Amino acid sequence: MTAINNVSPFSRFLRFILTLALTLGAVNLSSSSASAAPAAPVITSLSTQTSGATQQVTVNFNYGDASTVTGFKYSTDGGSTFDECDSSKCNWTAGNAYVVIQKISGGTSSMSNGTRVNIVLRACGTGSGNTAGTGLSNCSGNSRTIAYTVGVTSTPTISTSSTVANGATNPSITITSTNFETTTALSLFTVGVGTTGLTANAATWNSASSVTIDFTGTAAAGTITIQASLSAFAPTTTTASNTVSVTVAATTPGAPTSVDSSTVTGTDIRLTWIAPTNNGGASITDYTVQYKVGVGGSWTTFTSSASTNLYRLVTGLSPSTTYYFQVAARNSVGLGTYSSAFGPVTTGAAPTVPETPTAVSAGSATSSSLSVSWTAPTNNGGSSILDYTIQKSTDGTTWTSAATGASSPHTVTGLSASTSYVFRVAARNSVGLGPYSDSSTALSTSAASSPPAPEPERIYPPVITSLSKLKVCARGHDEFMIRGGNFKDATVTVDGVVVTVKGKSDGVINLSFGETTEGIKKITVTNSAGSATAEVEFKMVDKTAFKVFDIPYIYKGGSFLYQFEAFGENTFRVTGNMPAGLVLNSETGEISGIPTEEGKFNFVLHADGLCGNDVDVIKLDVDKEIPNAISYRIKFTNKKSKKIAGTAQFELNKFLKMVKEISPKQIEPIIYITGGAPDNESDLDSQSAKERRDSLCDIMLTNEIIGQTMLGLFDGEEDEIEIFVYWPVVR
């Protein structure tokens, strides 16, 4: 102590200065060696998930900068207490832009639905999270505080009634909602400008329900989109708002510029221009050209097809006239502004016929053609040349038209061999034909060459494709046809014997055979190039003729079968009206079936034979259908007299008349009578019964019952008789 007390004041001062310098140096060294802390994260949204009986809050964020982050600290009480994101209370995986909070900071309690928390995050650049909360250091400042109710998601809604016109300068859009943050900034909104050409400049807080976004630039067609982040609201919401859109509508295009003319004739002027710098926000689809005569004239629209070309040939103008022009562009909205008037432009004089072609010459001689060449006129008369007329002459005095050509040279054809020609040419435009040129130097066509000898006609071997039939009548007089090709100048033999040809073309040969022997014979067709063969069977059969017919009884509904026979080897066919229900077997001539109609039928039956043909008219009388058996009962009103009279007489008359009407023409009915006999007489076999039947048959034949009495015929005790009638079936 003494030693210290004896130190002079100056020494003590010097020691103090040295100590202070060392202390400051240490601080500076420590500061220079430490790394900068990361920037605070920006929270973008929150959501709640259930994990067992507890709730987890996921906090999504954007990193504050590109600094290396080793972990995060979190607070659920607005920054009063912080814990580190480790596996027990809060999870974060390196690289992820979110943390998952399981428990409140500064404690061990879990969060339940409805819990109100104020979440703050810090990004740390050193260490790693641990349960003790001592692992992270070098951390950022606090993020924005997000007030959040666990399990409740709040999505704000924004809207706008603002519009932005096409061409508006430095426009603004006001959005409305509730609870806008008073310290608003453009960074709290996501703004898209699309193709409008605008730039978002600032955000101004008007009230808790209104914020205005200002833009710089001139608005073009396109769509502006605006979305408010969760931090744009107080209290902060859990998600960003919806997105609103404002469309800048397209408008008509601006005016074309630099209108100019290139080609000028007496009736046409070709205009060119530069497209508008502003198409109005929609593609240009056409240009409209107007013209007027002189400064004070009225504008006339030139009619043409739609085109986006930056030029137009204006036609139909008057010669030697001064014109002015203007051009406007068109898009889907409509016609834009016209350009400044361009002019004056004066059309040329009225066109005339072209001048004379020059240097006409001929060459390239053949026996029938010469090639004519010329030089086009130096003046086309103010209108494009359409074609050239060429004339020819053999004496230089008499000229005739030779050809019309579009350009030089042109070959004139149809000339005579070994003949000298001169030519002259005139040009034609829309006005007409100009004067003819001087004649060319004479040039002769070459001598005619001898025509080549014709090639001899080529002969091909005959070909047989088909025969009219494969069997021929050996009795003679049978017609036969061979079909094929290359039959010209051909001969025909049968087993080597030449036969007479009745008619022949290149594809058909007609033959008629005489009587010969039976057997398979070879037919050969031969010409100078070869031959073709085919085999035919010659048969000796009877000449076709129908045999005598004995046609059986035929009636409607009855089965019919009859074979019509003919001599020879034949097939059969029918022409005419055969009864319905009958069919013909064309191979056998058998007609069979069940007629379905009655009446008289006439039809022709044909027998087409190997050795001739025959026909016969068949007449069929189809009788009525055979009726079923019928009966009639007569009851005597006066048993003693046995007299049939009155109503009984009338009804019996009707019955007998009906029997006659339904009876077939060729079948007689069979009649049985029962009753009316004595007690000891057999109804069927007795003489009395037979007499009664005969009597009734007579009555049926005469069909006359006039109150007659049948005394002696009906002697029994019975007071009635029954008449049975049936028709036997004919087989």
Keywords summarizing the entry:
five-stranded antiparallel beta sheet, 731 residues, Immunoglobulin-like, 8 domains, 4 helices, disordered N terminus, single chain
Strand content: 35-45%
Distance between the termini: 173 Å
The total beta strand count reads 49
Query: What is the name of the CATH class of the largest domain?
Result: Mainly Beta
Q: Report the mean per-residue pLDDT as an integer.
A: 84
- Multimeric state: single chain
CATH topology heading of the largest domain: Immunoglobulin-like
Identify low-pLDDT runs.
1-33, 700-715
Shape: flat
Just name the CATH architecture of the largest domain.
Sandwich
- Estimate nothing, just give the exact number of structural domains: 8
Q: Structural class of the secondary structure composition? A: mainly beta
The main sheet comes to:
5 strands, antiparallel
Q: How many DSSP helices?
A: 4
What Rg, in angstroms, do the CA atoms define? 64 Å
Share of helix, binned: under 10%
Description:
By secondary structure, this protein is mainly beta. It has eight domains: 1-32; 42-149, Immunoglobulin-like; 172-248; 257-346, Immunoglobulins (Immunoglobulin-like); 358-444, Immunoglobulin-like (Sandwich); 463-539, Immunoglobulin-like, CATH 2.60.40; 545-622, Immunoglobulins (Immunoglobulin-like, Sandwich); 630-726, 60s Ribosomal Protein L30, Chain: A (2-Layer Sandwich), CATH 3.30.1330. The chain is 8% helix and 39% strand. The strands form 14 sheets. Strands 3, 4, 7, 8 and 9 form a five-stranded antiparallel sheet that branches. Strands 31-38-37-33-34 form a five-stranded mixed sheet, with no helix packed on it. The longest helix has 25 residues, at 9-33. The radius of gyration is 64 Å and the shape is flat. The relative contact order is 0.05. Residues 1-33 and 700-715 have low confidence and may be disordered.
